[in-house]
Amino acid sequence: MIKAGTFKGKTIAVFGLGRSGITAALSLKAGGATVLAWDDNPTSVDAAKDKGVPVEDLNKYNWDEIDELVLSPGVPDNLPEPHWSASLAKEHDVPIICDIEIFAREVMARAEENRPKIIAITGTNGKSTTTSLIGHVLKACGKDAQIGGNIGRGVLDLDSMHAGTYYVLELSSYQLERTNSLRANAAVFLNLTPDHLERHGDMDKYEAAKRRIFRNQIEADTVVIGVDNSEGRRICSELKVSNGRRIIPISGRKSLGHGVCAIKGKLYCAQNSSVHEVADLKKAQALEGVHNWQNAAAAYAAVSSLGIDPQAAGDALLTFPGLAHRMETVGQIVKVRFVNDSKATNADAAKQALSSYEDIYWIAGGQAKSDGIDPLSPLFGNVRKSYLIGEAAPRFHKTLNKSKIENKVSGTLEMAVLCALRDALNSDAKNPIVLLSPACASFDQYKNFEVRGDAFREQVQNLADMFVKEKRAGDAA
After folding, report:
1. Which CATH architecture has domain 103-317?
2. What is the DSSP secondary-structure string of 158-224?
3. Three-state DSSP class for residue 271
4. Domain residues of the chain, as ranges?
5. Most CB atoms closer than 10 Å: which of 97, 217, 289, 292?
């Protein structure tokens, strides 16, 4: 755990006692702060208390005595409406921060030569894969890489820092909007498409939150930015004009005169008037698709900017095992391959899988985002049939019918898997894919996308076991 010594002697309120909230409270307590932690859920309060977190009903406390509020990233302080704790903080001029800000202050409190390296990653899609991939490359190259933030462990739960540590942090817009002090040695900005607008209000404010990842960078630092969409190209141009940092454009689909790019799966680095091949990404089973080629370009650009050996980094890309719930192959039954892409919680994320395969038996649905699956219509030609689940099923049914794509309202994931397997086995496709890529949040049927993906994986494994038993019985007969 990282002790928050910069808060020693202060009184800090913590609201939201999930993973990051409990860790933040314990970090602050260990650093010498007076901690007042609370949650609207009594069960969460009791669980935190059992772990040694000092709890206090913030509704009843004198907020004039509070120095700062650590607010869980998922709790709104403005839109769609401010949480009561945020309203009290604003009423008493109490700054609102998150655990990333605590971490950043701890880093900046150290002498320059004793600070760890920070690689921060944001973007609408691809953050988790890129974060995990960077961590994998650094570890393969013998570095002490700590991976966390919006993925895996909370940032303050990571191992104590030293000058040789590399912190690889996935950062959401929710975290970035409450972070003021972070300086990223390498800031990775993958892409920008509409998302979380109910929280930010509009695209301008959403972009502004994301762009805070560049805040506090100096000339010695690096920006790695995706230029495969117009928003990325615009932001890249604006950054080039506005500051002197090193800027490395990345692409998964086109040649770049300067930067790191993938062309038909071959990764190239173009810098200082020379171009060299980094790796053949088609040999990396966990990096299928143009979007993953861009993720690989981002990872390579980020680590190489910090002095990691280029050859070792390129080799490490090919051994990446992949990320759970993101285009993850979870089994095969006869000729049918099952791919778990449960992390695709919006249309733009689902687009990556739909563009990477053919002969798809697509399981989609859940709690739909505002644009539904209409933006995916150019890729419907890759879909043999769709199986629709959750709240969005009737709406998606109408969209697919307009495009004359065969579909079935299955309702539940279990029924969708069974129907998709039956149809795929009976098809003339040589390599059919049963793809769970919902293009929706999971909250109508599952606690989160991980639970949804785990349910898919478990059902596939059970069906595979059943097929093996039946085959053995048939052979014995």
Report:
1. 3-Layer(aba) Sandwich (3.40)
2. SPPP-TTEEEEEE--HHHHTT--S---SEEEE----S--HHHHSSHHHHHHHHHGGGTT--TT-EEE
3. strand
4. 5-97, 103-317, 328-476
5. 292
Burial category of 427 from C-beta neighbours within 10 Å (exposed 0-12, middle 13-18, buried 19 and up): middle
**Coil, strand or helix at 62:** coil
Q: Does 370 score more than 80 pLDDT?
A: no
Is the CATH code 1.10.10.10 the one for domain 5-97?
no
Which residue spans within 242-334 are E strands per DSSP?
246-251, 259-263, 266-271, 274-280, 328-333
Whole-angstrom Cα distance, residue 73 to residue 41?
Answer: 16
CA–CA gap between residue 365 and residue 441 (Å, rounded):
8
- Is residue 475 predicted with pLDDT exceeding 80? no
Residue 469 parent element (H or E): helix 449-476
* pLDDT of 474 over the 80 cut: no
Q: CA 136, CA 296: separation in Å to the nearest integer?
A: 11
- Exposed / middle / buried, residue 161 (Cβ in 10 Å: 0-12, 13-18, 19+): buried
Query: For the ranges 42-51, 57-66, 90-99, 284-293, which has the lowest average pLDDT?
Result: 284-293
Q: What is the mean pLDDT of residues 322-338?
A: 93
Instruction: Find the angle CA(62)-CA(76)-CA(367) to the nearest 5 degrees.
Output: 145
| Model pLDDT for residues 102-155, shown as the tens digit of each residue | 999 999 999 999 999 999 999 998 899 999 999 999 999 999 999 999 998 999
CB of 173 closer than 8 Å to CB of 207? no
Element (DSSP H or E) covering residue 410:
strand 407-411
Distance CA 292, CA 298 (A): 10
Residue 134 near residue 187, CB atoms below 8 Å: no
Name beta bridge partners: 387.
363, 408
Q: Does domain 328-476 have CATH number 3.40.50.1220?
A: no
Tell me the Cα Rg of the chain: 23
Q: Does residue 168 register a pLDDT over 90?
A: yes
Predicted local distance difference test score (pLDDT) of residue 477: 64
Digit-coded pLDDT (tens) for 52-80: 999 999 999 999 999 999 999 999 999 99
What is the rounded distance in angstroms from the CA atom of residue 169 to the CA atom of residue 221?
Answer: 16
pTM: 0.84
**Three-class SS state of 36:** strand
At residue 263, φ and ψ (nearest 5 deg) are -125, 110
